[in-house]
Amino acid sequence: MTHTLVAFHAHPDDEALLTSGTMARAAAEGHRVVVVVATDGDLGLASDEFAGDGRLGDRRLAELHESARALGVARVEWLGYADSGMGPELLPDPDERVRFIRADVDEAAARLAEVLREEDADVLLTYDRNGGYGHRDHVRVHEVGARAAELAGTRRVLQATVPRDTMTRALDLAAKVYRFPPEFDREGFTRAFSARDEITHRINVRRYAAAKRASMRAHASQASAEAGADRTLAAFLRIPRPLYDLVFGREWFVDPARPKGSRIATDVFEDLP
């Protein structure tokens, strides 16, 4: 029996990093996969080649469609919000759009719930309560996704995450061969994502590592930087393929409705009728 999976993300490229393997696996197994982004990512960091003319948001949405093709995604939707950015100061809203963090949760959830109803979604992917590493738009995705599932009656909500001890161990290994920029806050990751005992789903996506890598590569603007700088996505794409498959061969989720102490599930559709 086939199901429908909807992955809800804050910005184009977030799907590549956290859920693309799960999306590619679901599509390859015959399920319908839909990706929804809240914002167009117009405040993302990028070189002048991509952002110099003020059309970065358009380019990032185009990159999202390219990523979707690599993953076998059947439908791509943008909820119409503007990127809230990462800086300490929240910028004014652009013309005729609202920055996602300023959006009313019920209003934004209603937009997402409309997609969930149209698709008769079985599973919704969102973020954990920390919003992963804490970006304000990611935290809002967690809030909006939970409310939208209530409105639409979606049966299962899985929060994309990473076991934080795995994340910090990987960062320490990477630091031996890669120099992180001065502003990189390694300690911040000790409070980010989820504790290992909160993980309910561990999905093996190693067979779909090539699709995941293609999804990352599609977001060329987010691998770009000015001379002398480096970007995390660009560093990931430089990892040799066998090591890449190992590092990115699993994806993790938290199901807040799953009883504590349950065995770790290995399929996002497990036990669904």
Structure description:
This protein has one domain: LmbE-like (Rossmann fold, 3-Layer(aba) Sandwich), CATH 3.40.50.10320. The protein has a seven-stranded mixed β-sheet, sandwiched between helices. The protein has helices spanning 14-18, 20-28, 48-51, 56-71, 105-119, 136-152, 164-174, 209-218, 232-237, 241-247, and strands at residues 4-9, 32-39, 75-81, 123-127, 156-161, 201-204, 250-254. The longest helix is centred in the middle third of the chain and has 17 residues, at 136-152. It is of the alpha/beta class. Helix 5 (105-119) crosses helix 6.
Key structural traits:
zinc; alpha/beta; 273 residues; PIG-L family deacetylase; Rossmann fold; 37% helix
